[in-house]
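Worked example 3. Consider a protein that binds coenzyme A.
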Amino acid sequence: MLLNALGVHLVLVQSTRHAIDSYIHEQGIANTHHGNRRITDETLLKRIVELACRNGLVFRGLYMRALHRNRGRSSLTSGNFVSAKPVGIHEGIDHKLTGSVRRIDASGIRRQLAAGSVVYLDHLAHSPAGELYNLASEEVAAETAVALHADKLVLMGETPYCLDQKGGRISELALSLISTIKSNQNDEMKRRLDATERAVRGGVERCHLLGTGLDGAILTELMTTEGTGTLIASQPAASVRQGRIDDLPGLIHLLAPMEENGTLVQRSRDKLEAEINHFYVIEQDGRILGSAAMYPLDDRCAEIAALTADQTTTDQNIGTKLLKHVEEQARAKSLQSLFVLTTQASDWFKERGFVMSSIEELPENRQALYNLQRNSLILKKEL
Ligand SMILES: CC(C)(COP(=O)(O)OP(=O)(O)OC[C@H]1O[C@@H](n2cnc3c(N)ncnc32)[C@H](O)[C@@H]1OP(=O)(O)O)[C@@H](O)C(=O)NCCC(=O)NCCS
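Given these inputs, the predicted complex is written out as structure tokens:
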């Protein structure tokens, strides 16, 4: 509701998988899958229709309540926006009433969105001949996102994120790496990864895989750089690496305008060359998009300097990524705090955990080099 109020056009796709699995388990019915797809016979379809209708009604109730509480006005619209076709017979196995997406009525959905409605789709859809099919909700979501040229696809499930080999969260993943990590994931996540691959290859730039168990997961993922799930993007995320001598031309190109307008201290080419090992950069297609240097001051603290993001590159959180990287490096060196001296970006650092400090707090060797004329603010972050 909040996203809708913020002007985000929302299409929601219902999944009944969990309820169907419980039903099958309770009834002791043999689990009928072929690969990742459920085989739906007539009896099961009847039950799925009941479950999907019940879920739909519960959701409408919750939506109505939220609408009333927030004095919202957007209506929840459903319709025959998805048409289905039978999956048919695969490897000799008849999938019966299991279907797949035949067509999405993108213009019909767009009209509803333009009128301010939230569109609600379920995973049951008719073929043009009027036969009802049970579709995978992930497929409906991915095909709808592709048909609408959506900016984002968010797929929620019980598993909150993709796991790396050590069992930690993968917060960001390039499309090209999905196949590498897939074998580490459970079946539920694999299904979502297949849908994600389809959507990103179909032109959806960003897909978020999130957990249903976490309150506010969507807002946290969309509104913060940390997030709680896994983001899969069409472009490999530019990553931070150590600076190299061959970065010098790109680095000078990046820093020069900031040095000219006085935001950063001037560094000659020779100085940069001598200090290149202190630098970290983000490079994409041979272009240096950002830089940060870390100078150890003593065995307890270091200074972050020349933190710069290419001003033409927006939405990539270059500065935040570099800062995080420097913080990780400092922690790895068992340093306890980071200082920064800045004339223009004190708020930016404060928003990332730095607090105001003073010359006296700097190690003596750095105090002696403090440039009184620049009158930079000194900030500090405990690591
Ligand atoms: C500070 C700087 C590195 C941030 O890089 P960035 O890649 O734009 O930062 P991120 O994308 O991670 O964060 C963007 C957010 O920071 C805000 N921001 C950017 N520069 C800011 C500044 N100087 N003061 C306060 N906020 C700033 C943006 O408005 C944006 O906020 P929003 O998400 O609410 O819209 C970059 O603006 C820069 O190169 N500044 C000039 C050099 C400098 O002063 N460096 C610090 C001294 S070493």
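Take a moment to read the result before moving on. Residues 258, 263-264, 305-309, 317-320, 340, 342, 344-345, 347-348 surround coenzyme A (CB under 6 Å). The radius of gyration is 26 Å.
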